[in-house]
Automatic annotation (TrEMBL):
GO molecular function: electron transfer activity; metal ion binding; oxidoreductase activity, acting on diphenols and related substances as donors, oxygen as acceptor
This protein's UniProt keywords: Cell membrane, Electron transport, Heme, Iron, Membrane, Metal-binding, Transmembrane, Transmembrane helix, Transport
Lineage of producing organism: Bacteria, Bacillati, Actinomycetota, Actinomycetes, Micrococcales
Organism: Agromyces protaetiae
One GO term (biological process): aerobic electron transport chain
Name listed for the protein in its UniProt record: Cytochrome d ubiquinol oxidase subunit II
One Pfam family it belongs to: Cyt_bd_oxida_II
Gene: cydB
Annotated Gene Ontology cellular component terms: cytochrome complex; plasma membrane
Keyword RNA-binding: no
InterPro entries: Cyt-d_oxidase_su2 (IPR003317)
Subcellular location: Cell membrane
Family to which the UniProt record says this protein belongs: Belongs to the cytochrome ubiquinol oxidase subunit 2 family.
Membrane topology reported for the UniProt record: Multi-pass membrane protein
Primary location recorded for the protein, binned into one broad class: membrane
Length: 334
């Protein structure tokens, strides 16, 4: 396989890892107003992702660094054209991370409430804007002959991209709520299962609309295959959740996210950023990639480093696999 094509799919897999792992973090953060009846509930929710959220977030750094090294032209066009959207994502992630660390530093309810809302907003904004960004990548944006973005923020906020953003927001929300039911017990677990069931119905409808629109406008054979896998997994995850099988539901929702991301990359191939104004200005795998020597070196590094990262991540989840109990939180408060 050509190394540029290989790295196109490696970048896709890295974004799969990021959206699957940080996606449920976003969902847990967004669930605070819906599941947090009191401060103890909210502490339980935050503690479900407390040991892993920062590790999950590093996947976007690896994905961005790989994109920069393997496809510098693609990286440059994205980060210049999508600058404001990516800046908002960065600020939201910073606000969320700060809130996790600072909300417990003072006992006042108002202090904690402010940071709780920062967690909610810091989770919802990236969940929405990542979908907007990827939908625009698939749809294409206006580029000049130098592959520079010639539109503005309103160009990116088109109906198709906004539908993509709402889709990722809802899918991440349901994924996170199912994770809450997987990691908690008692009343909170039951309420999380109910919320995931209700939100899942809306998510299925919105996600179906987005996938059908994408397939009809930009789809390929491989897109339709992967989109079908995503659809079956999403419905299966919803059904598993209604039966109290949160482990199965969480796994199937992870498959949904992974299949959707791969489907979007399949709809792009062999482009990496289509030019909506003139196909001749499009960025492709061929004209956006680094030199063969750079890609070869990166391949050797990835072959050694990626298995180690996966082993460490798996070990971390194994160590923190137990459910978070409300009683433990209440005891720690005394």
């Amino acid at each position: 396989m050509d190394l540029a094509v290989l790295w196109f799919w490696i970048v896709a897999v890295l974004f799969v890892g990021y959206f699957v792992l940080d996606g449920f973090d976003f969902g847990v953060g967004m669930s605070l107003p819906f599941l947090g009846k009191d401060d103890t509930d909210r502490r339980v929710l935050i503690n479900t992702i407390g040991p892993v959220w920062d590790l999950n977030e590093t996947w976007v750094i690896v994905a961005g660094a790989s994109l920069f090294a393997a496809f510098p032209e693609w990286y440059a066009s994205l980060f210049s054209g999508f600058y404001l959207a990516l800046l908002l994502i960065l600020l939201a992630l910073i606000a969320r991370g700060v809130s996790f660390e600072y909300r417990h530093q003072r006992p006042e309810a108002a202090w904690k409430a402010r940071f709780d809302w920062m967690i909610v907003i810091g989770s919802a904004v990236p969940a929405l804007l990542w979908g907007v960004a990827f939908a625009n990548i698939v749809q294409g944006v206006p580029l000049d002959e130098g592959h520079n973005f010639t539109g503005n923020l309103l160009t990116l906020l088109n109906p198709y991209a906004l539908l993509g953003g709402v889709t990722t927001l809802l899918v991440f929300f349901v994924h996170g709520v199912v994770f809450v039911s997987l990691k908690t017990e008692g009343d909170l677990r039951v309420r999380a299962q109910r919320l995931a069931t209700r939100a899942g119905v809306v998510t299925i409808v919105v996600a179906a609309a987005f996938l059908v629109w994408t397939g009809l406008a930009y789809g390929s054979v491989w897109f339709w295959i992967l989109a079908a896998v995503a659809a079956v997994a999403l419905i299966g995850g919803w059904l598993a959740n209604t039966r109290g099988r949160e482990g199965v539901a969480f796994t199937l929702l992870a498959v949904t996210i992974a299949s959707t991301v791969l489907a979007l990359f399949a709809s792009l191939f062999p482009d990496v950023l289509p030019a909506s104004n003139d196909p001749a200005n499009s960025l492709t795998i061929e004209n956006a990639s680094s030199t063969p020597y750079t890609l070869e070196f990166m391949t050797w590094v990835a072959g050694v480093a990626l298995p180690l990262v996966l082993l460490y991540q798996g070990w971390t989840y194994w160590i923190f696999r137990k459910r978070v109990k409300r009683s433990t939180i209440e005891q720690a408060a005394h």
